[in-house]
Specification:
The chain is an alpha+beta fold. It is 19% helix and 22% strand. The protein has one domain. It is built from 4 helices and 6 strands; from the N terminus they run E-H-E-H-E-H-E-E-H-E. The termini are far apart.
């Protein structure tokens, strides 16, 4: 079934924001960031292959929410697990697109058999095996904390 059956895929403007929900374990145990003022690069890992194959087989990228259809608070609450263990980071889309060859594309989820509907769902695309470490380091500098739910 087409997961975008009722929602048109739109072009995301450069001056809009995107949000990413991340678990506190990505940052709490990282001695390099004890005050959690910086965003660590490991929050830009793509989903585990088995999870991606099962749920997002046609998508290739890092999931984010577009601020046209979501707030940081909604992104925080969107997951299946307790939101107090999660935080939300944000960036302007042009900041992500300034890291070549990355792009941000709208990929809404609608009528998926396993995933909740999410009109805000989008993807950061352009990662390759050759560039992903360098790009994740650069992306970490482009994002800031919106919510640190565990504080």
């Amino acid at each position: 079934m087409n997961n975008c059956e009722e929602w048109e895929i739109e072009i995301i403007p450069d001056d809009d924001f995107i949000f990413r929900r991340i678990h506190k374990n990505f940052v709490i145990n990282d001695s390099e960031f004890p005050n959690m003022q910086k965003v660590p690069q490991n929050v830009f890992n793509e989903p585990q292959k088995s999870w991606k194959e099962e749920y997002l087989a046609k998508w290739d990228g890092v999931s984010v929410d577009w601020d046209r259809y979501s707030t940081a608070e909604e992104t925080l609450k969107r997951g299946k697990k307790e939101s107090t263990n999660y935080g939300v980071i944000q960036s302007e889309v042009f900041q992500v697109r300034s890291v070549q060859p990355l792009d941000v594309i709208h990929q809404p989820i609608k009528n998926h058999e396993k995933l909740k509907d999410n009109r805000a769902h989008s993807l950061i695309t352009g990662f390759t095996l050759a560039n992903k470490v360098e790009i994740r380091m650069t992306l970490a500098e482009k994002f800031t904390w919106s919510i640190q739910g565990w504080l």
